[in-house]
Every structure is written in structure tokens, then in C-alpha cells.
Specification:
about 240 residues; mainly alpha; cell cycle; cytoplasm; Cell division initiation protein; DivIVA_domain
């Protein structure tokens, strides 16, 4: 049992012959009581501090455990978020690659289609241009033949004989000679085989000669309705 200062103060000793000086012993005990009380007080303070420190240590240990648990939970959540983010990023990348591939494929197909249509259009335009040139060449040759034939009619000696002063030719004779000459010239211009340079079947230029009441000859050239002479055909 631990002694208290009061126990020391109340302690009584027996006396013997030649024993210790009672006053000195009491004074020393008083000093021991004071020091012992101080030691007890310090020990109590230290015990209180130790209890407080133990309480704080327990609190911090509990806090540490809680923090460790929170860190583990946060780490698991972070790992899940990271895994989900990685999966979503992979999905987004795959979808973006697929979309870009589809866009490139569609653009390539459209480009090829446009190039094919342009090539086809260019070939068609080249063929139609060549046909137009042939038709124009035929028309020119036929027109040249017709005009040359009509010029030959104009240069014919029959005109001189008909228009010769003092001639007694009647109106019917002049009309007959002029009409026959023009009919032959126009027929030669229309039916000339030399007009078809490339031996291609083309529509004949509608050339007619008609003698009206005044005896004039009318020449009709091909118009824009001729399917073989479409000078605006540039498609």
C-alpha cells in the first residue's frame, strides 16, 4: 500500500536509550512529507497528461483508421473511375475512327462517282462535238455545191441568149428555161454524193426551189430544228 503524506506525518516511533533526536527526525519527516507531496502532485499531473495523451492517441488512431479506410474507398473509386474513363475513351475513339472511316469512304465514293460522271460527260461532249463538226462539214459542202451549181446556172449562155436584144422569146419560154435550170442546179446540190465526207447518215438540208408568180427562185437553208445540225449542242 502506498504511503500518503498523512501516514508519514502520523507515524510514531518508539524510544530507546541512546536513540535518534526526536526533533531532528520530525523535521526530516516534515521535509520528506513536503517532497513526497510534491512528488505525488507531479505524478498525478503526469498521470493526467498521460491520460490526455492516451485519449488523443486513441482519437488520432481512430482518425488514422478512418482516413486509411477513406483512402482505400477513394482509391477504389478512383480505380473504377479510371477504368470507366478508359473504357469510354476507347469506345469514343472507336466510334470516331468508324465515323472518320465512313466519312472518308463516302467522300471517296462520291469523288469517284463525280469523276466517272465527269469522264462520261466529257466523252459524250467529245462525241457530240465530233458529230456537230461532221454535220457542219456536210452542210458546208452541200451549201458549197448548191451555190456553185446556182452560180453555173447564172453563168450559163442561155441567159445571154434570152436577154439578147431583139430576141423574140416569149414569157413562157423564159420561165421554162429559168425554172428547168434552177431545178437541175438545186437537185445536183442536194443529191451530190461528194457532200458526205465521212459517209455518215445525216439528214439532207431542205433545199427547195419554187417559182412564184414573179418568176423568182426561193432557196430555204436548214434551220435550228434539224436534229443533225444542232449548233448549240454542247452538252
Amino acid at each position: 500500500m502506498v504511503l500518503s503524506p498523512l501516514d508519514i506525518h502520523n507515524k510514531e516511533f518508539g524510544t530507546k536509550m541512546r536513540g535518534y533526536n526526536v526533533d531532528e527526525v520530525n523535521d526530516f519527516l516534515d521535509q520528506v512529507i513536503k517532497d513526497y507531496q510534491i512528488t505525488l502532485n507531479n505524478n498525478k499531473d503526469l498521470e493526467e497528461q498521460l491520460d490526455a495523451a492516451n485519449e488523443k492517441l486513441k482519437y488520432f488512431n481512430d482518425l488514422k483508421d478512418s482516413l486509411n479506410q477513406s483512402i482505400l474507398v477513394a482509391q477504389e473509386a478512383a480505380d473504377k473511375v479510371k477504368a470507366n474513363s478508359q473504357k469510354e475513351s476507347e469506345i469514343i475513339i472507336r466510334e470516331a475512327q468508324k465515323q472518320s472511316s465512313d466519312i472518308v469512304s463516302e467522300a471517296t465514293n462520291k469523288g469517284n462517282q463525280i469523276m466517272a460522271e465527269a469522264s462520261k460527260r466529257a466523252k459524250k461532249l467529245a462525241v457530240e462535238t465530233d458529230d456537230l463538226k461532221k454535220s457542219t462539214r456536210v452542210f458546208r459542202q452541200r451549201l458549197q455545191v448548191m451555190l456553185e451549181s446556182q452560180l453555173e446556172v447564172v453563168k450559163s449562155n442561155d441567159w445571154d441568149s434570152l436577154l439578147k436584144e431583139g430576141s423574140m422569146s416569149s414569157y413562157e419560154e423564159i420561165k421554162k428555161v429559168v425554172g428547168d435550170r434552177l431545178d437541175n442546179a438545186v437537185a445536183q446540190g442536194v443529191d451530190s454524193n461528194s457532200a458526205t465526207a465521212d459517209d455518215q447518215p445525216v439528214a439532207e438540208a431542205p433545199v427547195t426551189d419554187a417559182a412564184d408568180d414573179s418568176g423568182e427562185t426561193v432557196v430555204i437553208f436548214p434551220d435550228n430544228d434539224d436534229p443533225h445540225f444542232d449548233h448549240n449542242n454542247d452538252k
